Amino acid sequence: MSKIPSFSLEGKVILQFGGTGLLGRSLVASLSASGASLVVASRNRSALESLASSESTDGAPVSIEEVDIVNEASLHALKDRVLKQHGRIDGIVFNAVSRPMASLTDALSAWRESMETNATGFFATARIFGDAMAERKSGSIVNIASMQGMVGVNPWLYEGTTMTSAPDYFFHKGGMINLTRYLASHYGPNGVRVNVVSPGGIFNPEKPQSDAFLARYAKMTMLGRMAEAREIGGSVVFLLSDASTYITGANLPIDGGYTAK
């Protein structure tokens, strides 16, 4: 009888970029609970230290590393440190994001700033760590996009609220989905899988969205509500695990049926 594929990350070295925000912290909890040897990388040292302290208190210690993803030398140095400490990298989760824009009328400088992290930084990270895993003929990359990379903006959701939508986010998440397909094709012959998940709107208990927005958003989904951050991690764990070894180039919406309705 063949071995049943494992949904566990036990024994796997996973590197997560962007782990200090609402979704990032939830992903850290999911990956740690699944047994990964987890390294969380960000440019915000103080936020990383707070995260490490919190996770250690919860009984799931993580390693932290400072990195500037728009600087290739910084990324290469991070790769070398992780390989020296752990001997290999089994997977990466790209959750880093910059959101300097608030509307279509923002200064062009905000668009350029957004491009640095969300386009250039993403590409540099995927290439450097994809190459490192390709050398071992094994690995999995999971990119965190958004359903807003799949659909256009719906102004009705924001009517009567102070909430806005920003064009750079739609542009970058759409690009991330298609670059994932390109990377999957490029790295597939070397045993590295590349997939993307596209979460829908996530309820933020720290800064709750307006009641008007929540009511309208609920009508757009099949489940009648926004996601909770904890509901995203399971799909990421699955795509990193040996249970998904024949899945690559895929985009998995985690949106309560929003994009299928």
Keywords:
7-stranded parallel beta sheet; 41% helix; Rossmann fold
* Parts with pLDDT < 50 across at least 5 consecutive residues: none
- Text of the CATH class: Alpha Beta
Per CATH, the superfamily is NAD(P)-binding Rossmann-like Domain
Widest β-sheet, arrangement of strands: 3-2-1-4-5-6-7
**Biggest β-sheet description:** 7 strands, parallel
Shape: globular
Structural class by secondary-structure content: alpha/beta
Description:
The protein has one domain (13-260): NAD(P)-binding Rossmann-like Domain (Rossmann fold), CATH 3.40.50. By secondary structure, the protein is α/β, with parallel strands linked by helices. The protein has helices at residues 22-33, 45-57, 72-86, 108-135, 167-187, 211-220, 233-240; strands at 13-17, 37-42, 63-66, 91-94, 139-144, 192-199, 251-254. The mean pLDDT is 94. The chain has a seven-stranded parallel sheet with strand order 3-2-1-4-5-6-7, with helices on both faces.
